[in-house]
Amino acid sequence: MPRLVDHEVRRREITDAVRRVIVGGGLEAVTFQTVASEAGISVRLVQYYFGTKSEFLLATHRSVMADAGARFMQRWTALGADATPREAIRAVLTELLPLDSQRREEAIVLGAFGTAAITGQGITAEETFAAPRALATIVTDQLRRAQVADASAHRIHPDLDADLVLMAIGGLAQGMLQGYGTAKSAVELVDHLLDRVLGTET
Amino acid sequence: MPRLVDHEVRRREITDAVRRVIVGGGLEAVTFQTVASEAGISVRLVQYYFGTKSEFLLATHRSVMADAGARFMQRWTALGADATPREAIRAVLTELLPLDSQRREEAIVLGAFGTAAITGQGITAEETFAAPRALATIVTDQLRRAQVADASAHRIHPDLDADLVLMAIGGLAQGMLQGYGTAKSAVELVDHLLDRVLGTET
Fold this sequence. Notes:
The structure is a homodimer.
Chain A: H1 2-25, H2 32-39, H3 43-49, H4 53-79, H5 85-96, H6 101-118, H7 125-149, H8 158-177, H9 183-198
Helix pairs in contact in A: 1-2, 1-4, 1-6, 2-3, 4-5, 4-6, 5-7, 5-9, 7-8, 8-9
């Protein structure tokens, strides 16, 4: 069914254009005109695929989440069953950081949606909540595994520590986008965070 | 000199209006028209005090930083000389969180400027860097004090731990604005963060 494929390809071209417009000028730069121009197609064609601005913003948010989710699952599968909780959480966290241009683009787009949700613009907070909730579950599960395995005096609190880990990684990602630190110092901080939460082997 | 006082009062009215416009609709809602309307004055009068949009955005950023800084110093002075490093850092961190409506407004405004700086809008990254740098110095100093006083096996790394604390608090503030958690759970997380960084008394 080539028509259906074309349809998906064209929608993807449009949401990719939306991402680039957001990276270049924030959510406020997004209009039918700027997106059509960025995609190199007519406003009429954008309107054919997406009736309203909300529709293509939502589709863009979903496409970023789908890309990040797919990459995430690939990394997770590659870890294998014998990965330690620390290795698993480390893989999750580094996958979330804007360490290359694609993840940087995704982080800027998600950050813009997050900021917009605060003042009631963009998409709903409910949409932006789904991914952090899923992540919290994954990290909490791994911390429970670590808790069971831990024979030292260090006490892991799976729920509190998962919240701590995720708020730290959110702040780190945001800081990196704003130009603090380097990829190297970011990864160092992730390892230090894991030391603090899981305890260092002494 | 009543004229000078009037001048400052009027500028303050305008930057206060800018804050409310940002809280209501993000930085993209800020124009001479919306600010004048929010302040209940004419566009011409706004233009008399601020020649360009950049000028009143910068003045708004500075007024938020000045307010937060003043409140911060008051809190810091109230701590007294015998405050422990943990008490001092806790005071710093809770002062940064959007736990009441004023701090919430400030956090939204600063967050909007931070996001805008990523895509080159708003004010420069250099402006948005000043406060985090000052905070990092304060937290690092307190962690050094704690390091000297600490007789346990727990090892404090002042620089790394200061970065960790500040990225965690940044992520927590952002999360609270987006609707995660409550004031109570936020303060709980701050205490847990301090346990992780300074070690718990066991």
